[in-house]
Amino acid sequence: MKVTHIFLATTMFLTAFAAADGQPTANNPFFSAYTTPFGVPDFEKIKPEHYEPAFDEGIKQQAAEIAKITGQTQAPTFANTIEALEASGDLLSRVSTVFFNLNNANTSEALQKIAQSVAPKLAKNGDDISLNPALFKRVKAVYDQRNKLKLTGEQQRLLEKTYKSFVRGGAALTPEKQDRLRKINEELSVLTLKFGQNLLAENNAYTLVIDKPEDLSGLPAALVSAPADEAKKRNLADGPTGRKWVFTLQNPSIMPFLEYADNRALREQIFKAYLERGNHNDERDNKEIMARMVKLRAEKAQLLGYENHAAYILEESMAQTPAKVSELLNQLWAATVPVTKQEAAELQALMDKDGKNETLESWDWRYYAEKLRKEKYALNAEELKPYFSLDNVRNGIFMLTNRLYGLHFELRKDLPVYHEEVLAYEVKEADGRHVGIFYMDFHPRASKRGGAWMTSFRRQEVQNGKKITPVVSIVCNFARSAGDAPALLSLDETRTFFHEFGHALHGLLSNVTYGSLSGTSVPRDFVELPSQIMENWSEEAQMLKLYAKHYKTGEVIPDALIDKINKSSLFNQGFATTEYLAASLLDMDYHTLKPDQTPTDVLAFEKQSMDKIGLIPQIPPRYRSTYFQHIFAGGYSAGYYSYIWSAVLDADAFEVFKQKGLFDPKSAQSFRKNVLERGGTDEPMTLYKNFRGAEPDIKPLLRRRGLIKAL
Questions:
Q1: DSSP code of 467?
Q2: Is 419 exposed, middle or buried (0-12, 13-18, 19+ CB in 10 A)?
Q3: Are 607 and 635 in contact (CB under 8 A)?
Q4: Considering the chain, what is the average pLDDT of its residues?
Q5: What are the b/e assignments for 317-351, b being 16+ CB within 10 Å?
Q6: CB within 8 A of 257, min separation 6: which ones?
Q7: Active-site pick, 65, 500, 528, 540
Q8: Mean pLDDT of 152-180
Q9: Is 420 part of the annotated catalytic residue set?
Q10: In whole angstroms, what is the distance from residue 437 CA to residue 507 CA?
Q11: Residue 35 to residue 217: CA distance in whole angstroms
């Protein structure tokens, strides 16, 4: 079944037909096969007015396809029921993937209105399928005879996944409970959209405008050019000195400001604005929205027979239960707290040297951490940036994937893109065979939500014996070029690029039959393995020598800088791990509640949650409740822990390359064949053990983060 979700797409050939209202559809690009190279979406022809007619017709078409399955007189078989259901909903996925991808990466007021209009329709359509008794009866009939059928391993997996999706979707509930479930799903679909739209508006609403050069004290010259350019873009009047500088809540703007700006009052101002997003008791406030979502999710879980939302979600994960997640998080928390407290003491001592008799606060941490980094390791983060131009990092990643997997990336300027900044590449095997199409969208803009992610416009699958190749994309928010310098990445942004590219490889190298099992169609706590293992190469000396070159001189990054990077690798790991774990534990606290336990004051609940684990006041959770997009608008509810779960996997898996060679082709091919190509065709632990030969060991992760001595 082609699920109408941003991460799924479709490829079936479409011919022109009439829309739901009977009007001709010749001018709607969704109603015919794309005539573009490789059948990519025809972005240049797609207009806002095309979406709703295509959504309506797609829902109508899928309803007819489901009726055809349930109306047949033949006994249920894998082919006429499971495969037929898998093939349904082509048009709906076709429009959904384009729409929701653009609503995240290049939205507008028109798209946001459409999203609010279609969300209830899509929720209803999903429920009409999941709660269709005749359809479930046929699916169950096939499932009940699964041991007698001669199915391939992938067919067995699809059958199990399909059956479980019906049960988890409420097919076995009484009619009364199904009616309540429909109302919950519809309301959740609208609230999810609203949460994300509010956060985007909050991010765009705030600016810190500086018109005095002395308020820029501490900021390296390279970090002053971009804010000056931003002021010009906004057509702001000149300040007293003839210039103004604009800082925003986008990460490439706020984080360097917090690291370098000497003006403590301004650091406090911008950081508090960051912390208070969605918490202003106005039309963009997210407190009631997220509290309502927590309550509805808990009620839905109980309707379906689960103790809480986390138990419902984790049933389909590697972790399986909230207890196992809590065990991992608490083990890591216990190891991290002593390290974090020591870091805080070091930063306070550094503050005391300033003689101002001030107490370390959250808006001071990054500033003094950067000072301490320089003092301990003589490493200035800005000193590194000239070696990590966006072009050099991209070329380095291309080089790495060529060495590991033999892939080639060819820039294609003839392919339509959804924004002028987007780049399109054709990906080829070493022998020239076409693999897929890969889009990259790098820089922040008001129309793009924050963060970085990978998504698909078309998933790999096999139709009528022909392999349909994928169309994938990564979307980031890296700093733009400023002044006469190209876009220069921080080490953290460089890791992010490698990370998202790992997700892209998971989608591009998929080699399965069914789209529902392809690429990233795996549990949340396994999907981060391909992305996080890629990060490991970004700072290996052997890899750095290949791609980290000064953008002006072409000089390869010197050994002295590489040595500083390596020696400082454990620096501030207590902070990084603490803010992440705090958010993960907050996520679990919300989603292990029962409906009658939903807090009326989410800020008080958040404080209670953080006080319970002993979070020090200088470190807020990486995402506070009102802007925790991952769990309230990003599909990671009761799943934010998955990054650290996958970190255990990736640290253990990378040991293979540390032992056998950083670019060992045999190890790379094993990872490709056993993990990247297999998608969701087997149990994640089985896939992992097929590559590694054993279950993962937590010690490599603890060593990497400098936490092993704390246990």
A1: E
A2: middle
A3: no
A4: 93
A5: bbbeebebbbebbeebbebbbebbeebbebbeebb
A6: 208, 219, 223, 247, 266, 267, 270
A7: 500
A8: 97
A9: no
A10: 10
A11: 55
Q: Is 578 helix (H, G, I), strand (E, B) or coil?
A: helix
CA distance 590 to 597: 9
Give, for 462, the enclosing helix (H) or strand (E): strand 461-463
3-class secondary-structure state, position 20: coil
Mean pLDDT, residues 423-446: 97
Amino acid (one-letter) located at 496: T
569/370 Cα distance (integer angstroms) = 13
Listed in sequence order, the DSSP H helices in 305-389 are 309-314, 322-353, 362-377, 381-384
Strand, helix or coil for residue 15: coil
Query: Is residue 32 within 8 Å of residue 54, measured between CB atoms?
Result: no
Alpha helices of 106-152 — where are they, by DSSP H? 109-130, 133-144
As a whole number of angstroms, the distance between CA 130 and CA 164 comes to: 10
Query: Would you call 129 helix, strand, or coil by DSSP?
Result: helix
* Cα-Cα end-to-end distance for the chain: 47
**Which DSSP symbol is given to 81?**
I
**What span, in angstroms and rounded, lies between the C-alpha atoms of 48 and 73?**
41
Among the residues of 131-221, which ranges form H helices? 133-144, 153-168, 175-205
Cβ pair 654, 646 in contact under 8 A: no
Where residue 5 falls among pLDDT bands split at 50, 70, 90?
A: very low
Q: Which two tokens stand for residue 180?
A: 């309540």
Tokens 């301004």 sit at which residue?
266
Residues 6+ apart with CB under 8 A from 265: none
Tell me the two tokens of residue 35.
Answer: 């005539």
**The two structure tokens encoding residue 362:** 């959250």
Of 635, 539, 575, give the one whose Cα is nearest residue 7. 635
**Residue pair 408/430 in contact by the 8 Å Cβ criterion:** yes
Which helix (H) or strand (E) is 411 found in, with range?
strand 408-411
For the chain, the C-alpha Rg in angstroms (whole number) is 26
Q: Please tell me what DSSP assigns to residue 488.
A: B
350 residue type, one letter:
L
Contact yes or no for 681/157 (Cβ under 8 A):
yes
| Digit-coded pLDDT (tens) for 270-311 | 999 999 999 999 999 999 999 999 999 999 999 999 999 999
The residue among 131 and 23 whose pLDDT is bigger is 131
Using CA atoms in the order 335, 340, 341, 344, what is the torsion angle rounded to 10 degrees?
Answer: 170
Distance (Å, whole) CA 632 – CA 258: 27
The tokens for 217 are 């004290």
Q: Which residue has the tokens 């020239």?
A: 432
CA dihedral 341→346→350→355, nearest 10 degrees, is 60
- Asked if 329 and 210 count as a contact pair (C-beta separation under 8 A), the reply is no
Under a CB-based contact definition with an 8 Å cutoff, are residues 53 and 59 in contact?
A: no
Alpha carbon distance 557, 494 (integer Å): 15
CB 291, CB 301: distance < 8 Å: no
Q: Which amino acid is at 693?
A: G
Res 16 pLDDT > 80:
no
d(CA 597, CA 309): 13
**Cα 156 vs. chain centroid, distance in angstroms?**
29
d(CA 537, CA 56): 46
Q: Characterize the bridge pairing of strands 471-475 and 434-441.
A: parallel
Buried b (16+ CB within 10 A) or exposed e, 596-633: eebbeebeebbeebbeebebbebbbbbbbbbbbbbbbb
Per-residue pLDDT at 671 exceeds 60: yes
For 225, which DSSP code? H
Residue 25 binned pLDDT confidence (cut-offs 50, 70, 90): low
In sequence order, the β-bridge partners of residue 426 are 410, 437
Q: Which residues of 537-568 are buried (b: 16+ CB within 10 A; e: fewer)?
A: bbbbeebbebbbbebeeeeebeeebbebbeeb
